[in-house]
Amino acid sequence: MLHPERAKIVSDGPIASGIFDSLESLPASIRPDPYAVVDGTRTQSEGATFVIPDERQHKALFGESAYVAMLENSVLLGRFASGAERSVCDAYRTAFQLTVG
C-alpha cells in the first residue's frame, strides 16, 4: 500500500495543505509521496491516509516523532518532531544533494 519503491513522508496525523509544497518542484522520480496516519477516513489531509490500528506498530514507526521520512525501498531518512517540516524538506534535499533555488 505504501509503495516501498517510492520515497515517502509519513505524518502522525493529517498533513496540512501546502506544508510540503517546496518539494513539489522536484522531479517526480524522487519526489516523496505524503501519507498521513489518521483516526478515521473523514479526516482532511493532503496525500493518502491510512490507519495503524496496532499501538505497538504505531510506536515502532513514529516513536516520539510526528514525521518519518523515507527514501526509496523504505530506507529511513529520519524522524522529525512536529513543527520541523522545513527540516524534513531540508533532509530530503540533502539526501539527493539538492539545493533550494
Topology, element by element:
Blueprint: E1 8-11, E2 33-37, E3 48-50, H1 55-62, E4 67-70, E5 76-80, H2 85-95
Parallel strand pairs: 1-2, 2-3
Antiparallel strand pairs: 1-4, 4-5
Task: Please explain how this structure is put together.
With 101 residues, the protein is an alpha/beta fold. It has one domain. The chain is built from two helices and five strands; from the N terminus they run E-E-E-H-E-E-H. A five-stranded mixed β-sheet has the order 3-2-1-4-5, with helices on one face. A hairpin with a 5-residue loop joins strand 4 and strand 5. The longest helix is centred in the C-terminal third of the chain and has 11 residues. The model has no long low-confidence stretch (mean pLDDT 86).
When the domains are counted, the total is: 1
Shape: globular
Largest sheet: 5 strands, mixed
Q: How many runs of DSSP E, i.e. beta strands?
A: 5
Instruction: Kindly report how far apart the N and C termini lie.
Output: 33 Å
Proportion of beta-strand residues: 15-25%
Radius of gyration: 13 Å
Main-sheet strand order equals 3-2-1-4-5
- Helix/strand-derived category reads alpha/beta
Order of helices and strands: EEEHEEH
Mean pLDDT metric: 86
What fraction, in percent, of the residue positions are helical? 10-25%
Separate helix tally: 2
Unreliable parts: none
